[in-house]
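Whiteboard transcription, Tuesday session. T.W. wrote the structure tokens on the left side:
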């Protein structure tokens, strides 16, 4: 599969490039756009301040520009936390999207969002202060109403960004379970017909 993988609010950290390498080793082609243009953070407040400087529209613009040259191939959009929200927005707006892999994050869904049985897999800590239960329930209902085929995997006791070995949230067991499920999900997706049928 062709995968567009977006980083978290911390930027393009080693965990993101390691994840991309893991996906490539499984036979996928992966791009990791740097929406922060080289800025990487360890501190959440500093990362959020930089995110605010760019603004949501600026981030989305950069993401669309990064994905545009590859979108005809039928992309799987994926991302970590903030990057998952970006990936969701792009996937819901791309009629050729093959799938959506969300790690640690979701985004709001427009009332008129509509997809044709888009396969979606979400991995999230339980509980997660950034993805509370009420929000996730509403998100799931709205995604399925939009036409997505959604599966949700929860990880009790894990921290928010539990797949990043360099952050305090890291949970090795939850991370391994996540990647096993994610690789299975990607293997289950049908390649896009080059004729577009």
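and on the right, the sequence the group agreed on:
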């Amino acid at each position: 599969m062709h995968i567009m993988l977006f980083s978290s609010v911390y930027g393009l950290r080693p965990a993101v490039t390691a994840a991309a390498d893991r996906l490539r080793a499984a036979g996928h082609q992966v791009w990791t756009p740097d929406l922060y243009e080289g800025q990487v953070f360890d501190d959440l407040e500093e990362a959020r301040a930089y995110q605010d400087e760019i603004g949501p529209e600026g981030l989305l613009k950069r993401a669309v520009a990064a994905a545009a040259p590859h979108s005809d191939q039928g992309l799987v959009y994926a991302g970590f936390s903030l990057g998952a929200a970006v990936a969701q927005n792009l996937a819901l707006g791309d009629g050729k999207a093959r799938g959506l892999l969300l790690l640690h994050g979701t985004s709001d869904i427009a009332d008129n969002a509509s997809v044709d049985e888009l396969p979606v897999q979400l991995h999230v800590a339980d509980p997660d202060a950034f993805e509370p239960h009420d929000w996730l329930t509403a998100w799931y209902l709205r995604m399925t109403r939009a036409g997505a085929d959604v599966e949700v995997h929860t990880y009790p006791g894990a921290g928010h960004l539990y797949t990043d070995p360099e952050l305090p949230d890291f949970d090795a067991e939850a991370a391994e379970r996540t990647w096993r499920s994610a690789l299975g999900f990607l293997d289950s997706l049908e390649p896009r017909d080059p004729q577009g049928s």
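Someone added at the bottom: Residues 44-67 form the longest helix (24 residues).
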